[in-house]
Amino acid sequence: MPGMKTENRLERTLGLFTVYAIGTGTMIGAGIFILPAIAIGKAGTAAIFSFILAALITIATTMSVTELATGMPRAGGGYYFVSRAMGPGIGTVIGLGEYFSLVFKGAFALVGMAEIFRVIVPVPTLVTAIFAALILLAVNYRGAEGSGILQNAIVAGLVLILVGFIGRGIFMLEAANFFPIVRFGYGSIVSTSGLILMAYLGITQLAAISEEVKNPARNIPLAFLGSVITVSILYLGIMIVVIGVIPFEKVIEMSNPLAYIGTKMLGRWGFNIMIVAGLFATISTANAAILSSSRYPFAMSRDNLIFRWLVGMHPKHNTPHRAIIVTGIIMITLVLFFNVEGLARLGSTFGIIAFILINLAILVFRHAKKDWYKPTFRDPLFPATQIFAILGCLILLPQQGILAITFAGIIAFVGIIWFFVYGRGKAIPDYNLLDMLEKEEVPVMIKDIQEKRVLIAISNIEQEDDLIQLGNYLGDSLIGLHVNKVPLQTSLREAREDYICCVKEDAFYNKLKDEFEKELEREKKQQKFLEVFSHDVAAAILNEAENEKINLIVMGWQRDKRLHQWFGCVTNHVLLYAKSHIAILKGYFPKEVKKILVPYGGGENSRYALYLAKRLALSTGATIKLLRIISPDLDEIEKKEHEVEISNIAAEEKQCQIEYEIKERYSRIDTIIDATEGVDLLILGDSNERFRLSLLGNIAWRIANNTKIPLLIVKRYRPFTKIGAMALWSRWRKGV
């Protein structure tokens, strides 16, 4: 049928109990059979307090995760939250870290399951682990609902067994086994919590499936908080029973104390029941790890941070099958070649870092107050819970050991390098942490009454008329500036006196001044022409802009040296240090402006570009065409959100005519250049990327070198960056 559009979607199929079961399953795993003995060996009876501390930190973090998940229910969970709060650079690091953390944990669970199964059937551990991995991959390959049904059955059986174990064990406690309470000092409580927190890291996995949850406003808070509280109660009950039933000297020598207690309860039947419970627990953990970890490459691929082929959806099952297969291959490889128990401990370090970043993300979003962040659940104890969780994690992190910290540093370094090599310039979102922290609103509507003072930096007669005409449209008061560069061997006073003597014969200066005055006289605007002597042209422009309280500096694209993309030229120095907004004109300014193209990405520079376009349109009668470029990989909900946003922007301004177009393309540069056909002027907001060596972003630079029409590049002043980090960088370069 002609015109039919085919769409592939992952429907919201996970209900309350399924999500609750997945969350509980990710946290009740092999650890419930292994961690008690290890924790008691490190802290004695005080290990109970270690579990309580770890549970409190997790519950505090769950409050943040729940708020973020109801505000941004997208695949990727912790990665998505952190990347939207702090930008794709940090998002890449946490995405890779959480992904490998889950893979390590899943591999550990598979081996744990194989070891338990070997007690029943003498099958080699590797054979059982790989066979189980293949079965779980097949279930997840067919879709989340299939794995959700499996998860429900596993968790239901496991919880019933553990509840029965705790209920029977309470009546077997020996009070003498609890003393002394603090056997190894109070420091052991904190150090043991760092190990135990590994068991609770599944909450970040649970957030990764939030976009598949039905009725997320209700089900996400209930499922997330319910699963964490359930697991905390079960862990606490298990610890009390193990400590109270088995003397300290015996429990530290056991690898599976729960099976031993099961034997004391019901003999051989009790032993078999706890073995089956162990199998349930480890399979649950491995299944949840595969289910959730596949979301991380999926989400990162959608944000242009990993190769797009990972995003491919299965035509029948609507699952990210390639991401699931890659996860399975890595997990099986770890089972074959690595000590997965050690890797699971190393991977947990990134889980603790994820806790820190997720809690920081809440602080960032609450500070930024973005219109698009509208969670249906808000933490009522904000910011106390976030501060407690962050401080707790910072205390626990060093307890993971030098090796784990080093591993985390290596993954972070790899993530940063990958971002700069592959994702920089095309990754989503196009802002970073500093953009979120700076709350200054960018004007879009033409209703401000503040006088706009524009400085026109004039360096040649050829472009003077164009710059004056542009400045005339954009500003209310104009200051023309011509800087005479004086050699270092000559004093400024000497140069000025020599210039005054010869000024009447200086045709260049007189023509600049005459043209400036003549042009502005017709417009009856306030004007001033400055002739400045300086050893440093860029410094002179910056000083005069500050002295004159300039809002906008208008400059021309340097034709002699071009506009170098690296440090060194006058324009770059102004771009780096100016405390005013900047507009750089490449080419001529059209004598008649009928149509202005503004690529709009939602960042502060593109918003300011739209604002300047409106000021131009108000004076010239031009029509503004807004161009929004979105990834074809976005789901229909996100595409609709972009359409509503851009249509509202076009409709809100009544003083000029605005039309808009949305294009689904991978290449923003080619799309913008193609859209310039029939356009008189292209106004482009520079990218919001910070801390780069090139002062213009890659997109602005490439478009400037390829477009055939006049181009105005707009860059807003951001005080935090210029005065802070970039000033420090400059001082370091100069050896100050």
Summary, kept brief:
With 736 residues, the protein is of the alpha/beta class. The protein has helices at residues 16-27, 31-43, 47-71, 78-86, 88-120, 125-141, 144-169, 187-196, 202-207, 216-245, 248-251, 257-266, 268-293, 295-302, 321-337, 340-368, 384-396, 402-423, 433-437, 461-474, 492-502, 507-523, 537-547, 570-577, 604-620, 636-652, 668-675, 698-706, 719-733, and strands spanning 453-457, 477-485, 526-534, 552-556, 581-586, 595-599, 623-630, 658-664, 681-685, 711-715.
* Helix/strand class: alpha/beta
Q: Which overall shape is indicated by the principal axes computed on the Cα atoms?
A: elongated
CATH class of the largest domain: Mainly Alpha
- Beta-strand portion reads 5-15%
Distance between the termini: 70 Å
Number of helices: 29
Helical fraction equals 55-70%
Tell me how many strands there are. Answer: 10
Major sheet description = 10 strands, mixed
Mind telling me which CATH architecture of the largest domain this is?
Up-down Bundle
So what's the oligomer here? single chain
Name of the CATH superfamily of the largest domain: Amino acid/polyamine transporter I
- Count of spatially separate domains: 2
Order of strands across the main sheet: 3-2-1-4-5-10-9-6-7-8
As a whole number of angstroms, the C-alpha radius of gyration is 32 Å
CATH topology descriptor of the largest domain: Amino acid/polyamine transporter I
Q: What is the arithmetic mean of pLDDT?
A: 79
